Amino acid sequence: xxxxxxxxxxxxxxxxxxxxxxxFTYLILNNKTRFSSLxxxxxxxxxxxxxxxxxxHSEFHNLCNQQDKGNGIAHFWRSLALNEQTPVSWEPTNKTxxxxxHLASYxxxxxxxxxxxxxxxxxxxxxxxxxxxxxxxxxNPLKLREVLVRYDPSRSNIDAYVSEALTNYVKSETAQNKFxxxxxxxxxxxxxxxxxxxxxxxxQPEISQFIFARKYFKQVYLINKVKNPARxxxxxxxxxxxxxxxxxxxxxxxxxxxxxxxxxxSISTNVTGTEIQQxxxxxxxxxxxxxxxxxxxxxxxxxxxxxxxxxxxxxxxxEEIECQNAFDIEEISKEEFYLSEKIxxxxxxxxxxxxxxxxxxxxxYYGFKLNxxxxxxxxxxxxxxxxxxIAKSTLSLLDKISAISQPQLWTRDYVKRWLKQSYQAPxxxxxxxxxxxxxxxxxxxxxxxxxxNYSSQQVNQSQLNEVVSKLQDNLLLDxxxxxxxxxxxxxxxxxxxxTITILRNTxxxxxxxxxxxxxxxxxxxxxxxxxxxxx
Length: 535
Hints:
The protein is an all-alpha fold. Helices cover 64% and strands 2% of the residues.
């Protein structure tokens, strides 16, 4: 990260297109060129919310057309955030939270000017650190609420009021000398860091390597600096030195071949202390720029007491974190759809060819969830015979799928293509690639080196072919296991659907607990009817 103590070297603040843009954009610092520059980036969720209010709220629509530099819109969101009224039918349920985020976007400009003005009076801090401190306030809804609840519109302009509050806050934090960018790096979760790096434009395998490196940097930094007897409790966290980074690199290199290490890390080369330092600087840059990353984590009680709704991580969309390129989500091709339909049809047709007694066992087992012991008692059979019948039936279905998909014909070419194109940064959401990654983790160091140099002309081709064959064998075994799981799930869904149909046609409630004799009678009647229809 660059340190700006000269106002002339601080990048210029670009203008936002119009007043509404001030409420759904945030600043990012671009260091990719020789000279750093600032640019505005959209928050899609906030942009959609602005459009919604423009369409549905007449007062808001009029405010958007006023030539007041967005002042009226800022007052609108402040009022909505503080009043905490129940949303009307068209409003989002988290409208209060969104209001605070709109205000944070608007006050981004005030953060910039606060940092720039303070930099004029101080040569002790980096300009980016002043900016980060100011943003820590506006993106913390609890702190921003404390500021805006005291604002009196009759006494001052909201822009001037917030600028003064930001200046006082940054001065207070720097005067106490507690703020540290290394503390920011230490405290953020892997998920937050990953999102921030993605928004910064970093991709795999870098992201996994950065996160893995931070894990061991934190351990070294905690012992050497945070828990250092020379540092008193409450003092600012010390800056790491070359020895800290070197020790972190040694830990990284020692642990990268462990089974717990991500694939992208385990296949990487050894790193130096200088590289670790550069990586950690990139991580800090990403965290300081990404709003969701500098937003502190609150307890559910704190958020609810202030009128906020807890936002579950599980419902965050890719668009909301602006990382659409981070996930390899592919639409099902026509060929895949055709293959799926062909397999489903083949399985259904094969079930009909099974003996009636076998069909009855499968129906009772998968459809009505009777266990093997119950089936043995009902059908007057040995439990081992029931088990063999089910296993033999699923095995025959497995053969049907294998005859259609023919994995033995395409897996070797797939493995070679994967080693050439995706070995460095595999798609972990793809079950086939995930299987290959898992297999590689169990290979020896020598075998991994062969795969790492797959495209090299100097590698021993005989040894390489043996490792590729081993990788293919592992993949075939996993495909076989995955297919077994698929068949079990398919049979459950198939017979569950038939069960629902039978109960509906015979006027039995779905949730009613039926006697075993009744269940058997229903299944036998259905199978008899199906047999007659087939003939």
